[in-house]
Amino acid sequence: MANFVVVYDACVLYPASIRDLVIELARTGLLRAKWTARIHDEWIIALLRMRPEIERARIERVAQLMNAAVLDCLVTGFESLEVGLKLPDPADRHVLAAAIHCGAQEIVTFNVRDFPDPVLRPYGIRAIHPDEFVQHLLDLNREAVCQAVRRIRRRLVNPPRSADEMIQIYERNGLVVSASMLRARAKSL
Fold it and tell me: Between the CA of residue 154 and those of 7, 91, 166, 178, what are the distances in Å?
């Protein structure tokens, strides 16, 4: 099992395309991904705000499947650490507290500014944009990342997605450099 531990912030668990990718990347063995029940609540609430027609039970089932898919992913017992943490948005303290508690090296988030380096550095943690996160994994083991994308494509049958469509979706959702790197391997996706 990998020693590199990351906490996924709620913003990388919604939209579904990014969630699918980071969950599959967690299954590669290149890292140990973590999150909390509160992080689940955050992305579920965000999704329901945008898509109120979706039943909450259906979304909660997705959260259960995520928990089952990634070994030892749920962080608990971090709450007492929140009180002493200072972040630009106090609502993010639970994410940092969970990262400290589980010994994470990175918080993967689109909201990097919300996790300033001077606050995180003393804990040996840094905030990283998901595009940079995927780039690093591509540099570390391009084939494992490509296999993860292939697994996602095999599951997407209604409608099916071509490799080019998947890459375009990643690009539209903020993984611009990673999408470019994957485009070079599109035939193997």
Answer: 26, 37, 12, 20
Joined together, the tokens standing for residue 112 give 């990097």
pLDDT tens, position by position, 69-82: 999 999 999 999 99
Q: Which residue has the tokens 């945008």?
A: 50
106: tokens are 């990175």
- 38's tokens: 């509160």
Contact partners, residue 154, CB within 8 Å, separation at least 6? none
- State the pLDDT at residue 14: 95
**pLDDT value of position 33:** 98
**pTM, rounded to two decimals:** 0.95
Q: What percent of the chain has pLDDT over 70?
A: 99
For every residue of 42-57, DSSP letters joined together read HHHHHHHHH-TTS-HH
Residues of the chain with pLDDT under 70: 1
**Sheet with strand 5-8: strands edge to edge:** 32-34, 5-8, 106-108, 126-128
Cβ(26)–Cβ(19) below 8 Å: no
Q: Are 170 and 15 in contact (CB under 8 A)?
A: no
- The architecture CATH gives domain 5-131: 3-Layer(aba) Sandwich (3.40)
